[in-house]
Each structure stands twice: as structure tokens, then as C-alpha cells.
Write a structure and sequence with these properties.
Layout lengths: L5 H14 L22 E6 L10 E5 L16 E2 L6 E6 L14 E5 L3 E4 L17 E5 L2 E2 L18 E6 L6 E7 L14 E5 L2 E7 L8 E8 L8 E4 L4 E5 L4 E3 L12 E6 L7 E6 L15 E5 L2 E7 L11 E6 L5 E8 L5 E6 L2 E4 L32 E9 L7 E6 L14 E5 L2 E10 L3 E7 L5 E8 L4 E5 L4 E3 L1
């Protein structure tokens, strides 16, 4: 009797199925096309590292577009796919390439928030693959530089002079700090870049060492996007460290002592109810989360951008856990506002609460609404009128412009902004005196002191001269200085 080898028989039966499971046919979701092709364009679909935020600004850079000079140019900025955070895309028109270069000459990617592209071994990356015009190519970015660049331990840093610590919410791509006043302490415009980054008590700062040689100087700091968009001047005397917060339109003092470490996400409430007490109750996926009715008491108070919030920490164990909760704010004594927010405990929430309702707010732009006025206020007596001020007189400032700039502006600071806020005034009147053509500005004054800054509104500027508004002036403006005739 012939014996059959059962194992061999089974293997033969399975061979057709095994042949149909080639690993070459496995396609991951992130590899699927997310952008439509465009005629005349090369399409790069970029798989980005985990931790890339949807709000990040990512650029492609290389010899073909000027390298880092391309940062900020929308032609070279990637866009996020609408249906996933893992893939971004960019359409490239070869007609925009410079110096005869192409993608084959090398390119990499740069995240404004997280730095340069890096390999898994933390080495620089250069891609050279390129799709044909009218087709697409998948590119993988494995890491951003921030993955490897952890903030320095503040106890290990040896600083040079006093330090300017900055919480940078400016949205600038390339932060720089310039100083003028007693000296141009950090070099010519646009000044210095951050000395480094450091995390102190959970707050991440960019910091600028000001140099021991500059101690005691009175300086006006100008933070800018590497000489482009800039924030208002901020005056300091270098006799201490300074903590500042930058927003898209302002420079503000930052108080490290007010930094609060939260337990998970929090609900922040501007309480305008007038209630004697405030509680937060949640129901939904889990009822009575953080306490039965009336719910939890406030965790504390915190001031953000000058506005005081009452906040409720939701607990790290409850956050990002897929819960859907309805939030009720109440006074524990019959008054409540239902469904202030319904959310998944996956973010901080900021609300303005009144006795009749609530609305979500953005703490970066929120301005408290005016309280309802008393319908029967006490009459206010007429104030005693101030004495009439001395009448102002008109004076002319004559400027002989030898700068060679394409545009010429004058800004003044001192007792008053006689030419308005930055960038000031652009003289549009000329007069010829003794054969010399002057740009003329007419001002009103009664002895005020002013400091003039001449600039081209494009990054070139210098302190000109100080004047007193009690006479006319003739001034010569050179490319790098000014003098009174």
C-alpha cells in the first residue's frame, strides 16, 4: 500500500493561495493618493512624522528655489490633505525653478514649528527623486529636528549677561531681536537670533543672551520676522532678566509666577454671572464625571492676556479617552446654563458665562464685554474745566534726503507721536531753499521734545536727531546718519 505524505499534499493545495499574497501588493493607507493631479505640475505627496500638527507650516527647500529664502513664499508651502493629518502635498511648477536647477539637484523639507527634516539617525536628509510633470511621487519625512533637540536644562546654562526670555506666540517664521537706544547692542538690523531654547517650570522659552558688556544700557527692543514684519518697540534697561510674551501684534510682560500646571485639559470661565458660587457638572458617556450634582468646584483662577479666568481641571485620566461630555455650569442653588459645550475632553475650552448664557471665546483675541450699565446711576457732577493750554505753533522740518532710499519715512517718539504710529510720515511736500531741495514736514508744537527715526519702511533705519518743537530745523539725512545744519 502506497503511503501519502499529508504535509506535502497540503502544501501543494496551498501554493495557489500563497502565490496570491505577494507582499508587493500591500498598500498602506498613508500611501494612497490624496491630491488630484494637475496638468503642468509635479505633485509631491509627503508622509509626515507623527506629532506634526495640522497648524504647522511646512516648506520644500533646495537649490531649485533658493533654499531657506523660500520659507514664507506660498509657492513652496505644503498643504495638508483634507482627510488625514499624516499626508501633505505640494504642486510644483518647473517654470518657477531658478538657476537651471531641478528636484534632482536635491531638496528637503522644513517645518517652521519643528525645524529641519532629519533621518531616524538625526542626520540631514536630501531627496533627489522627482515625478514627471503631470504625475505624483510619495516622499517620507521620518523626523523633524525638534524630535532630537530637547530644551536645555536651565541649571546647566551659563549665560552671557542678562537674558531676555520670550514666550513666542508671534507666528513669525524666523524670530530676531534688534536693539537701539544707548547702543545698537546686538548688531545691525534685524539684530540677533535666539541664543537657544529652554523649558522652565513647564514653559518653553526662546532666550537671548544680551552680553555682559551691555549691562546697564537702556535699549528699545524690536522683535521682527528676520527684518520683515515687526512688533512695537519694547523698552528695557539691562539691569535684570526680562520675561516677555510675543503675540502677532504686541510685546507684553510675562509673569512666570502665574504659570499654572494643569491636570489634563481645563474649562476656563470668564464669570460674569454675579452668582455667589460656581460649579461644573458633566454628563454623557460617563454621568457624574468629576462629581455628582452640582459637580466640581473650581480648581483655581488664572490670568491670561490680562483677563482673569476661573478654571476647572478635567483630569488627565479623563482626557483623550474618547468620552463625549455635556458641560453644565451652575451655582448649586437653582441657576444653571446647560450645554455650555459638548466635547470629547480633547482640548482646553474658554467661555464667557453670563446668568443667561455662555459662548466660547478665543483667549488670544478676547476683550471682555462691557457690563450692563446701572439704569439709574447717580448723577455725575460736571468736572472742573482744565485751564486752556498754551496754543501750539506751526514749525517746519526741512530734510535734505541724501540716503538714496527708494522710500523715505520719518517716525517720531518722545512727548507725543507727531507723525502718528509706525511707520510715521512719508514727506510729500518739497521746497527749494538757497538752491537745495528739501522734503518738508509741518508740525505743531509748544516746546515738546521728540526723537526722530529715519527709515525706508523696508528694514533700513537709524536714530536721526533729537529736536524740540519750538523752532524750524534743517536736517541732512545721509544713508547711515543725520545731522542738523
Amino acid at each position: 500500500m502506497k503511503k501519502l505524505n499529508i504535509s506535502s499534499l497540503l502544501l501543494l493545495l496551498l501554493l495557489p493561495f500563497l502565490a496570491g499574497c505577494s507582499k508587493d501588493e500591500i498598500i498602506f493607507d498613508s500611501q494612497l493618493p490624496r491630491f488630484e493631479l494637475r496638468q503642468g505640475y509635479q505633485l509631491l505627496e509627503v508622509i509626515v512624522p507623527q506629532g506634526t500638527l495640522a497648524s504647522d507650516k511646512i516648506y520644500i527647500i533646495g537649490e531649485f528655489n533658493g533654499g531657506m529664502d523660500a520659507v514664507g513664499d506660498p509657492r513652496w508651502q505644503l498643504e495638508k490633505a483634507p482627510d488625514t493629518d499624516a499626508k501633505w502635498g505640494i504642486y510644483l511648477n518647473p517654470a518657477d525653478f531658478i538657476n537651471g536647477k531641478t528636484l534632482a539637484d536635491g531638496y528637503t523639507f522644513y517645518s517652521v514649528g519643528q525645524g529641519e527634516e532629519r533621518s531616524l539617525e538625526n542626520t540631514p536628509v536630501v531627496h533627489r527623486d522627482a515625478p514627471d510633470v503631470g504625475s505624483r511621487l510619495n516622499v517620507i519625512v521620518y523626523r523633524w529636528a525638534d524630535y532630537f533637540d530637547k530644551p536645555a536644562d536651565p541649571g546647566e546654562i551659563v549665560h552671557d549677561g542678562y537674558v531676555i526670555y520670550v514666550v513666542d506666540n508671534s507666528e513669525f517664521d524666523d524670530l530676531t531681536m534688534y536693539a537701539w537706544g544707548d547702543a545698537e547692542a546686538f548688531g545691525g538690523w534685524p539684530g540677533m537670533k535666539p541664543t537657544g531654547t529652554v523649558e522652565i517650570n513647564g514653559v518653553k522659552y526662546k532666550y537671548f543672551d544680551t552680553g555682559a558688556a551691555n549691562e546697564g544700557l537702556n535699549l528699545n527692543l524690536i522683535f521682527s520676522d528676520n527684518g520683515n514684519e515687526q512688533l512695537p518697540d519694547y523698552n528695557v534697561t539691562l539691569n535684570q532678566d526680562f520675561y516677555l510674551e510675543l503675540t502677532p501684534g504686541s510685546v507684553n510682560e510675562f509673569d512666570p509666577s502665574e504659570v499654572v500646571t494643569h491636570d489634563g485639559y481645563a474649562v476656563f470661565v470668564v464669570d460674569r454671572t454675579g452668582w455667589d458660587a460656581l460649579y461644573l457638572y458633566m454628563w454623557g458617556t460617563v454621568n457624574d464625571l468629576n462629581g455628582a450634582w452640582p459637580g466640581m468646584s473650581p480648581t483655581g483662577t488664572q490670568t491670561i492676556n490680562g483677563v482673569q479666568y476661573t478654571y476647572f481641571d478635567l483630569g488627565a485620566a479623563n482626557c483623550d479617552a474618547g468620552l463625549e461630555e455635556h458641560v453644565i455650569l451652575n451655582n448649586g442653588n437653582g441657576k444653571q446654563v446647560d450645554d455650555v459645550v459638548v466635547f470629547n475632553l480633547d482640548r482646553d475650552v474658554y467661555v464667557e458665562l453670563t446668568a443667561s448664557g455662555a459662548k466660547e471665546i478665543d483667549p488670544a483675541t478676547y476683550v471682555p464685554s462691557e457690563p450692563t450699565p446701572d439704569p439709574t446711576p447717580d448723577p455725575t457732577p460736571d468736572p472742573t474745566p482744565d485751564p486752556d493750554p498754551e496754543p501750539a505753533k506751526e514749525y517746519k522740518i526741512y530734510i535734505q534726503d541724501l540716503t538714496g532710499w527708494s522710500s523715505f519715512y520719518v517716525y517720531a517718539w518722545g512727548d507725543k507721536e507727531i507723525f502718528g504710529t509706525w511707520p510715521g510720515a512719508q514727506p510729500d511736500v518739497t521746497e527749494t531753499v538757497d538752491g537745495v531741495t528739501y522734503k518738508v514736514l509741518t508740525v505743531e508744537g509748544s516746546g515738546e521734545s521728540e526723537n526722530l527715526i529715519f527709515h525706508d519702511n523696508a528694514g533700513t533705519q537709524y536714530d536721526a536727531v533729537g529736536i524740540t518743537l519750538d523752532k524750524e530745523y534743517y536736517i541732512i539725512a545721509y544713508p547711515d546718519k543725520a545731522e542738523i545744519k
